[in-house]
Design a protein that fits this description.
By secondary structure, the protein is mainly β. The chain has three domains: 49-178, Cupredoxins -  blue copper proteins (Immunoglobulin-like), CATH 2.60.40.420; 189-324, Immunoglobulin-like (Sandwich); 345-462, Immunoglobulin-like. The protein is built from five helices and 31 strands. The strands form six sheets. The chain has a six-stranded mixed beta sheet, with no helix packed on it. Strands 12-11-14-19-16-17 form a six-stranded mixed beta sheet, with no helix packed on it. It has a five-stranded mixed beta sheet with strand order 2-5-10-9-7. The chain binds CU-O-CU linkage and copper (II) ion (2 copies). CU-O-CU linkage is lined by residues 115, 117, 155, 157, 286, 392, 394, 443, 445, 447.
C-alpha cells in the first residue's frame, strides 16, 4: 500500500509516454542539428512570430478538448492536445458581474474535466476531479463572475492525469475585467498581450512528449503561447503583458535585457496595492503577473529579450519598430485592498515528500477538514523537503502574511490577492483566507502538477 498513488502515477505516465512517443526513442534536440532551440549554438536561431490565442467571450461558448496539431510557430507539425484547436486555448474573457456559461466537451481518449484556476465558483462549477467526464461526454458550467479583474486561467483537473493533459497542451487564459480597471485606461487591443510561458519536450518527430519523473516534468525547451523561439513586433508604445507560468514543474525567474524594468501592476488576484518597477519576477507554476513595458523612448530597431534567468533561456524577443504611439493611461497604479483581519483559527499543513499533505495522499472521497463559511483563518504551509511546492487553494483568494526560513521575506508580487504561493524548501509561509461565497468541497494542492497527480492534494469542505 505504501506510496501506491506514486506508483500508479508513474505507471500512468509510462502509458502516456508510450502513447505520445509512438516509436521514436530519441529526442529532437538530441538528434537534429538543425533544431534551432539549442541555446548553445553560436548562431542566433531563426525566430517565429508570437502566436496570440484568439479571445472569446465566455458566454454561450463550447470548449472542446481534443487531440490536434500545431506547428508551434515553426515549420513542422506537432501533435498535441488542444482546447478548440489551439495551443494555448482561446483566451476567455468576462466582465465582473456577468455570467459565464461554457459547455465543455471531452473529445480526448480518456476522462477529463476543466477547472477555472483562481475563479471563485461553486463546487459544481469548479472542475473537481470527481466530475471528470468520459470520452465523448460534456459538462456544463454556469456561474457569475463575483471577483476582481485579473488574469485567471483554465486547465484540466483530472484525477492523476492533470500533469499529462496540461503538458500535452490543454491550458488557456481567462481575463476578467471590472470598472476599477477600465478607469485606469490601461493598454488594450493589440497593446495588451497574454503570455503563457511553459516548457516542452519534443520527440524525434516533433510531437510533445510527456515523460515525467516523480520529481516533476521539466521540458527541454521554452514555449511562449505555444511558439518556439518567438518574437513580437512592438510599436514605440506602452504595452501590457498578462503573464502566466503554465509550466508543470518549472519555476521561472523572468527578466528583460537592456536593463528594461517591468512595471509590475498586478498578480494572481488583480491589481496590487501599488505598482513598482522590478528587474526580476519569480513565477512558480500557476502564478501570474500583470506588467507594463514602456517601449516609447527606445530607438527603432532595438531588440529586447524576455529571459528566464533560472534556465538561461531566451523566451521572447521584442522588436521595436518605428511607429510612435502616445499613451494616456496610467503608468503607476494603486488599488485599495482591505486586509482580511485577525484569524479565528490557525491550521498547519506540512508538504511531505512528493505526494502528501500532513502525511496523507489525496483520496477523492475523503474530506480532510471543514471550514465555516465567512470565517477568517490563518493557514500555515511548511515545506518538508522536495520543494519547491507552489501551494494553491480553490474557492477563495488569500493574502500572504509572512515567509520565514528559506528566502525569509515576501516579494512585491506577493502582495494583494493571491491563489498560489511559492513554498521553497526550508520555508514556512502563512496566509489569511476566508471563504465567503459558497459552501461545498474544494481543493488545496501543490501546483507542481506531478506532485498533485501523485497525491499532494486534499479536499476540504466549506460548511
Ligand atoms: Cu491550477 Cu487546482 O489548479
Ligand atoms: Cu485552481
Ligand atoms: Cu510539491
Amino acid at each position: 500500500m505504501k506510496a501506491m498513488k506514486t506508483q500508479q502515477f508513474l505507471r500512468l505516465a509510462l502509458v502516456a509516454a508510450t502513447f505520445t512517443l509512438v516509436s521514436c526513442e530519441k529526442e529532437w534536440n538530441e538528434s537534429s542539428a538543425s533544431y534551432s532551440q539549442n541555446q548553445n549554438l553560436r548562431t542566433a536561431p531563426a525566430r517565429n512570430p508570437l502566436f496570440i490565442p484568439p479571445a472569446l467571450a465566455a458566454n454561450g461558448v463550447t470548449l472542446t478538448a481534443a487531440p490536434g496539431t500545431t506547428t508551434l510557430g515553426s515549420g513542422s507539425v506537432t501533435t498535441s492536445w488542444e482546447y478548440n484547436g489551439t495551443l494555448p486555448g482561446p483566451t476567455l474573457t468576462a466582465d465582473a458581474g456577468t455570467n459565464v456559461s461554457v459547455l465543455f466537451r471531452n473529445d480526448l481518449p480518456e476522462p477529463c474535466i476543466t477547472h477555472w484556476h483562481g475563479l471563485v465558483v461553486s463546487h459544481n462549477n469548479d472542475g473537481h476531479p470527481a466530475d471528470a467526464v468520459a470520452p465523448g461526454g460534456t459538462y456544463s458550467y454556469n456561474f457569475p463572475i463575483i471577483q476582481r479583474a485579473g488574469l485567471y486561467w483554465y486547465h484540466p483537473h483530472t484525477e492523476m492525469l492533470t500533469g499529462k493533459q496540461v503538458f500535452l497542451g490543454l491550458a488557456g487564459g481567462f481575463v476578467v475585467r471590472d470598472a476599477e480597471e477600465y478607469a485606469l485606461n490601461l493598454p488594450g487591443g493589440g497593446y495588451e498581450v497574454p503570455l503563457v510561458l511553459r516548457d516542452a519536450t519534443l520527440d524525434k518527430s516533433g510531437n510533445i512528449k510527456y515523460q515525467p519523473s516523480a520529481g516533476g516534468m521539466f521540458g527541454k525547451i521554452p514555449l511562449v503561447n505555444g511558439t518556439i523561439n518567438p518574437y513580437l513586433d512592438v510599436d514605440r508604445a506602452v504595452y501590457r503583458f498578462r503573464i502566466l507560468n503554465g509550466s508543470n514543474s518549472r519555476v521561472m525567474n523572468i527578466s528583460l535585457t537592456n536593463n528594461v524594468p517591468f512595471i509590475l501592476i498586478g498578480n494572481d488576484g488583480g491589481l496590487l496595492p501599488s505598482s513598482s518597477n522590478q528587474t526580476t519576477l519569480l513565477m512558480s507554476n500557476g502564478e501570474r503577473v500583470d506588467v507594463l513595458i514602456d517601449f516609447r523612448a527606445m530607438a527603432s530597431g532595438t531588440r529586447i529579450m524576455l529571459k528566464d534567468l533560472n534556465a538561461s533561456w531566451d523566451l521572447l524577443e521584442f522588436r521595436v519598430g518605428s511607429n510612435q504611439v502616445s499613451y494616456g493611461g496610467s503608468l503607476s497604479t494603486t488599488s485599495a485592498i482591505q486586509p482580511l483581519g485577525a484569524p479565528v483559527t490557525t491550521r498547519t499543513f506540512t508538504f511531505d515528500a512528493m505526494s502528501k499533505i500532513n502525511g496523507k495522499e489525496y483520496d477523492m472521497n475523503r474530506i480532510d477538514w471543514t471550514v465555516p463559511l465567512g470565517q477568517t483563518e490563518k493557514w500555515v504551509f511548511i515545506a518538508n523537503g522536495n520543494g519547491p511546492h507552489p501551494v494553491h487553494i480553490h474557492g477563495a483568494s488569500f493574502q500572504v502574511l509572512s515567509r520565514t526560513g528559506g528566502r525569509g521575506q515576501l516579494f512585491p508580487w506577493e502582495a494583494g490577492w493571491k491563489d498560489t504561493v511559492l513554498l521553497e524548501d526550508g520555508e514556512t509561509v502563512s496566509v489569511l483566507v476566508r471563504f465567503d461565497a459558497y459552501r461545498g468541497i474544494y481543493l488545496m494542492h501543490c501546483h507542481k502538477l506531478e506532485h498533485e497527480d501523485m497525491g499532494m492534494m486534499a479536499n476540504f469542505e466549506v460548511l
